[in-house]
Amino acid sequence: MTKQAKNREPVVPPKCAGGIIDSHAHVVKEYFQEERELILDRALAMDVHTLINPAVAVEGIEELLELIESRASVYGAAGQHPHEARFWSPEHKEKILRALTHPKMVAVGECGLDYFYNNSSREEQLTAFREQIEIAVALDKPVIVHCRDAWEDTFDLLKSAGQGKVRGVFHCFTGGPEHLDAITALDFYVSFSGILTYNKATNIQEAAALVPQERMLVETDCPFLSPQKVRGERNEPAYVWFTAEKLANLRQTSLETLASQVSSNAGALFRLPARGFK
């Protein structure tokens, strides 16, 4: 936390009746340590009634399974992040397949391509992503896609390996209106993080106003990418309301309407148990 953030008056997120879903959060001990349960309690107190907690590497699956067993509000996803693609192996694939048999493991991922950092080679990323798309198709589960500076290859793989059957979401969307036609052709969802609230994120904001209402989600991607009003602080699920508020403003609708829509969308994508989702 920055010195400026420490001296800042606490900012209370907006919220509304009916609550909201954080469609992508990493509330695990690696980032929150002994505060993990406190953060989850605070989310519930702020009416973030459900969150999807994806694993980014197989090493995190054991904790994730324990967490979804102990917390009714938390659902999981199993996958290998592109940064970790160099470690992809038949053993990792088997661990992910085994984890995905749990009824509260609702997606494959997060996985995808990241050509900005290239922490794994492009070939390693392409192989790991292709095989995880194939898992998603075989199990009829959505795939949570990480895409950074790799749009063409990402679209190509989703089309070829997805066989017209894959479904899923572009999480933490960093594209623009120019990417929406390809996403619509795939019938994928688009999830917006705290980046949406940044003053310079005009391309993302333009896209946010155009995404079909039945295909938009919101997320924190915590502990990263805190929204503008709490920038400099560690992000957490309660702050998803700030992103929802910005999205509602961009789409010229109320926060209550927006929260209901994105929660309904998340319920449909991840096939969550009914909780008043329309």
Q: Report the principal-axis shape.
A: globular
Order of SSEs? HEHHEHEHEHEHEHEHEHH
What is the name of the CATH topology?
Answer: TIM Barrel
Spans of at least 5 consecutive residues with low confidence: none
CATH architecture: Alpha-Beta Barrel
List how many beta strands DSSP finds: 8
CATH class: Alpha Beta
Question: What are the salient characteristics of this protein?
Answer:
globular, TIM Barrel, 278 residues, alpha/beta, 8-stranded parallel beta sheet
Description:
- This protein has 278 residues and is of the alpha/beta class.
- It has one domain: Alpha-Beta Barrel (TIM Barrel).
- The chain has an eight-stranded parallel beta sheet with strand order 1-2-3-4-5-6-7-8.
- Helix 4 links the parallel strand 2 and strand 3.
- Helix 10 crosses helix 11.
